[in-house]
Amino acid sequence: MKPDLETLSPETIVAFIGSIFDRRGEEEYLGEPVNMGQHMLQGATMAEQNGQPDEIIVGALLHDIGHFTSEFGTFSMDDTEDRHHEDAGAAVLERFFPSVITDCVRYHVAAKRYLCATHPAYFARLSEASLHSLKLQGGPMSEEEVDLFEQNPNLKEIIAVRYLDDAGKRPDMVTPDFWHFAPMVQRMVDQHLASQN
Ligand SMILES: [Fe+2]
Question: How remote is the CA of residue 83 from the centroid of ligand 1, in Å?
Answer without folding.
Answer: 14
